[in-house]
Every structure is written in C-alpha cells, then in structure tokens.
Amino acid sequence: MTARSPWVDRFAGLESRESIVDRATVRAAPLHDLNGVSVLAASNAIKLAIDSFYAPADQEVDYLTEIVGSARLYSTATYESESHFLRGLNARTPPRCSTPPRCLSALAGVGKSALLRAIERVMPAEGTIALPLAIAHDLPLRSCQLIVVDAASTLRELLDPLLPQDLQLHQDESFGTQQTAKRRSRTTTGDLHRVASRRSFAMGISELMLDETQFASHSPAAGARAVSWILTFARLPPPFHYAVNYDLLKKLLDRPDYDKDRILADPKVLTPDPPRSTGMEKYLTECQVILDEVLGFKLAEEPDLIFSLTANVRRKVARLLELSYEAMRTRKEKAITPQHLRLAYASLKYSGMRSDVTAILTQSLQGAPVTGKQALWCPLGVEYNVLTPVANKIAAAASTGDFSSFFLAQGLPKPTRSLGQATPSIKPAASTQSDQPSKSRVIGFPRVKGIDKSTLLKNTMVSRGKDPQV
Question: Which of 394, 442, 464 is CA-nearest to residue 422?
Fold first, then answer.
C-alpha cells in the first residue's frame, strides 16, 4: 500500500470546477448612505468596493482549473512520499518541473492580477509538515507564491520571498536602505538562485506566479531584462507562469527563436467578456449589489450600452460607474440612469479610456490595429482582437447611431471628429455636387445697415421656435 503524501493530500476537495469556483469567488457587499458623504469619499468607496469582489467568468475558471491540475500533477510526481521528498532535498539540484512556463496575456484592466490573486485563494492554505524521522523541526508547507513586479524591482528583490530569513532583505533604519541580515554577505545572484531553488522545493511550492512583468524595465532593452527574469524563475523547481500586457508580449515575440521557444511555448490570452455573456452578467450583477442604493435601473439590462462605452474591460466598467455616480451628484439627482453613463463616457476624466474603447471597437471591426494604439492589439493573432459577432454588431451599430456618432468620435484624432466618424470603416459619401452647402438648408438674413427693436425681437423669437405673434 502506497504511503500517504501530505503534499498530494492538500489538494483534497479541489477535484471539481464547482469547488474551485466557490473558493475563487468573492461576493460584493452593498454600500450604504453614499449620498450622505462627499462626492470624493463616495467615489473612492465605490472604487474599493468594485475592486474587492471577484466573479470568475468561464475562461477564468478554465485557467484556474488548469493551474490547480498542473500543481497537483507536479506534487504527485515530485512528492510521492516522504522518501521522495528527502531524496530531492538532499540532491545537488532538486527535481524540476518539465513543463514550459505559461504566459498569461491580456489587455490592461481585463483582470490578470485579479485572476492571479484568485489562484492564491483556490490553492491549498499554508501549513506545516512534521517529518520526525529525518528533521527535528516542522517544515513550512506553501502551495503557491505570487511575486509582483514594480518599476523599481530588481531580480534580487523578486527572489526575496523564496530565500531563508537570514538572506532576506530588511530595512536598515540607520541608512534607510535594504540590507540582508548577513550584513557582509557577498552572495551572488547565482548563489541566491540555488538557495531559492532548494527552499522552494523544501516548502512544497507547486506554483510560482510573476505579475506585472511589463514593469521589468521601461527602457528600450525591456525585452532582454524581462526574458532574463522569466528564465531565472523558469529554472526553479515548481511550475511557473507570468502575466504580461500586449506591449511586452510583442517585445518577447521579437526576441530570437531560442528565447521564444523557452518562454512562449504555452501562451494564454484573457479576452474581455462578450456582451450578453454569463460572465459579464455575473460581473454586472455584483456591481448592482454594490450600487443598488443609488442605481435607478438594472445594469444587467443594459449590456449593449455598457459594452459600447467600455468594450467590457472591467477596469473601464468600474471607472465608468464611478464617474456616473459623480455625474449624478453634480446634477443633484438621486439615482444613476443610463444618461449618467453617457455623461461619464463624455467626461474629461474618462477621455483616456474613451480613446482606448474606440480603438478596441475599431480594430475589431477592421481586423487590424489602429494607428497609435498598437499596445491594444494582441500580437499572437487576429482572432484574439476580433470580438464576437454579437459584439461587432453592437460596435457597428454604436458607430453609426446618433448617440455614438458624437460620443465615440471623442476618442478619435481631431481631424476625424469633424467628419463625425466613429471608425475608419465608415466613409463619408462621395459627393457629385459642389462642396457648397445646399441653399435649401441655409437661412438668409437681409443685409441692412441697422435693425429696429421689434424686428430684432421677432427674429430672436423665431430662432427659438416661438410664435412672434404671441
């Protein structure tokens, strides 16, 4: 009879999609008395509340299920028993996962970071494991490790969570700088990698995650630095995946073949939820819970309008709802209506996002990136940029409607605005007549040197649509 393995047993209860969804989901909590506080305080509360819930769509559940399955398989193969663990712990190099790293890519704001945090919730909780026959103390048992990159990160700092305490960075209060506990340590990056490799194996980590990888560098050499970091983590024992935006993904695709073969062997693309989809309906339902006190309509009943204003990018949906509330308060009204969504879309605060939404809808309709907006185009293939037929139908209808011909044009360059076009696919009709406007549409006024008061009053009332005889 095979001995039980605590490294494998920790995955008990994660066999079904339902159990994974239950652990990943975070329900929204309603906000109260928003109109009783300042606009700024209420808007900030809305942002925090929307950011705090998580309702996974089908594509996210698929990814969560894949990650849990991969972690379980790795644990089964690597930690089959206590003897297997001790053999690997005492080996010169711990056994390493044979699968290539996964590359998770998406538009900014679609939900990459939220998905990685959901993986942390789904994976087995941290604990300890007692091995009295071989080791005198309990060992930490950790199922996954999420590492977040920021603009100031170094590789040394990123490896820090995987190092023992005496090699971890701490704040030196005397000089305000980071030092290791061993103040005079001359440990090289190679040495740190070997230590991190052994410790990640000893802790039983079965999934490593690197988020915000695009912050590896803002220099022209960003691709080279990011590749170096990705390969460093890929050489650690556990399965590994990293999240990038489309801009960095394009730089990685421009790397030599020997780099691409190792870091882009298993790419995954997270796309915005289609309009009228179950995933988007779940998201809007949670938003409804938060804002129910101040909403004058059901968000889930306006999926087409919300899609045309946000492309269903969740960060943009959240921002649109915040600004809609601000528009409601500015107009001294009591409930948010669809008109407030339109006002929020046309606002200065939404101008950057409005430009992106226009580009996302445009590139989907024309099947090619929009000039100046290449960062919104997934370089892995056209199919990841062209939205569903329903979405394209809504986008096309919005681009030619009276409402969107004004609002969508706000995100286009100034020369295009004068044509009233929402997308390049809509061309002005060719004219066979003179460029002069039709005389039937021109209101002429007599050229006289002066005008008396009664005539001025009469013309003013006519221009306002009033009867001058009244």
Answer: 394
User: What digits encode the pLDDT tens for the residues 67-124?
Assistant: 999 999 999 999 998 888 888 888 888 888 888 999 999 999 999 999 999 999 999 9
Q: Each residue of 295-326: pLDDT tens digit?
A: 999 999 999 999 999 999 999 999 999 999 99
The first and second tokens of residue 344, run together, are: 């929020």
Angle at 275 between CA 274 and CA 276, to 5 degrees: 115
H runs (alpha helix) in 292-401: 303-310, 314-330, 338-345, 351-366, 389-400
- Token output for 463: 């221009």
Give dist(CA 365, CA 389) in Å, integer.
10
Structure tokens at 17: 């999609």
Q: Does 421 or 36 have the greater pLDDT score?
A: 36
Q: In angstroms, rounded to a whole number, what is the distance separating the alpha carbons of residues 163 and 166?
A: 8
Q: In the chain, what are the domains?
A: 56-167+187-270 (3.40.50.300), 278-417 (no CATH)
Give the Å distances, CA to CA, from 79 to 3, 82, 87, 128, 341.
11, 7, 10, 15, 54
Question: ∠255-261-267 over CA atoms, to 5°?
Answer: 90
Could you tell me the CA-to-CA distances from 113 to 160, 255, 256 in Å, in that order? 20, 25, 28
Alpha carbons 441 and 432: distance in angstroms, whole number: 18
- Listed range (125-134, 206-215, 251-260, 447-456) with the worst mean pLDDT: 447-456
d(CA 245, CA 252): 11
76 within 8 A of 8, measured Cβ to Cβ: yes
From first CA to last CA, the distance across the chain in angstroms is: 102
